[in-house]
Amino acid sequence: MIYQIKHTRHNFLSEKIIKISAILLLVILAVFLFSIFGPTRSIVLNIFSPFIKTGNYFYGLVDFVPKFFTDKNKLIAENEVLGSLIEDDRLFKIDYESVKYENQKLREELGLRPAGDYVASSIIARSPQIPLDSLFIDRGSADRLKKGDLVLVTERVLIGRLVDVSANKSTVALSSFAGVASFGYVTRTNEPLEMNGKGGGNMEAKVPIDFDIQVGDKIEIAGSTNYVAAIVGLVEEDKSAGFKNILLSLPVNASKISTVFVMPTISE
User: Fold this and answer.
1) Cα(46)–Cα(53) distance, rounded to whole angstroms?
2) Which of 71, 91, 134, 184 could lock onto 219 through a cystine, CB 3.0 to 4.6 A?
């Protein structure tokens, strides 16, 4: 006798329903235990906390994105405003320095201008642009200036003479220019003195050892007015040679002035 083997068909749908039902029951049970028992609730939180934290992170990230771009645009706008203010401040400083310079020049000209027919002139070049102990000024023959005219800083302070004159420019050789000789006298004693330029704002002289001269003595040059031309800075005695070596300097620091006054020579 031959028996035919029958294949039993499993009902897969029924199995799925059973599995889903079991999962739902487990979830309900877990929720029930979570709501009743504290320890169980802690266990459930520990299990699901990574998922909760991850969700919170992504939620915070999504919330941060629009805020990030808003803050960035705000910073860009603020930087542009600050950049504009800095540029305005820079331009204001340039204007201030220009006005300050012009004011200084006016003060020098009005406050120091000698009484008389003097020509005020601005210094437009000095060492190292031109040779040491010389100045280049912005006035010339068009302003009645001539070679040999005296150059002053104030009404009685003489610093040099014009050595070259063009229509609108002139060159001043300071009394300290190397090789330039000046003849004056000691103000305190009226004793005559010859000075020779040494360079660097200095002059030197050699006098007999019994010549009365001291550190601080002023040396003047006679003219329509007596002008202070030098100050004695050092006196050294050379007893073996019987002379005194005198070191003198200009009455002012020529590198610190910006305006000079020239006394035009009266034509004969």
Assistant:
1) 11
2) 184
Q: What is d(CA 44, CA 31) in angstroms, rounded to the nearest whole number?
A: 9
Number of structural domains found in the chain: 2
Which residue in 230, 234, 190, 237 sits closest to 210, CA to CA?
A: 237
Among residues 108, 135, 114, which one has the least CA distance to residue 124?
A: 135
What pTM was computed for the model? Answer: 0.58
Q: What is the mean pLDDT of residues 28-56?
A: 54
Question: Predicted confidence band at 263 (pLDDT cuts at 50, 70, 90)?
Answer: confident
What is the spatial distance between Cα 260 and Cα 264, in angstroms, rounded to a whole number? 13
- For residue 79, with 0-12 CB atoms within 10 Å meaning exposed, 13-18 middle and 19 or more buried, which class applies? exposed
- 107 and 124 belong to one structural domain: no
- Which amino acid belongs to residue 105? K
Identify the three-state secondary structure at position 140.
coil
Spatial distance between the Cα atoms of 162 and 177, rounded to a whole number of angstroms: 12
Query: pLDDT tens across 137-148, in order?
Result: 999 999 999 999
Quote the domain boundaries for residue 214: 119-263
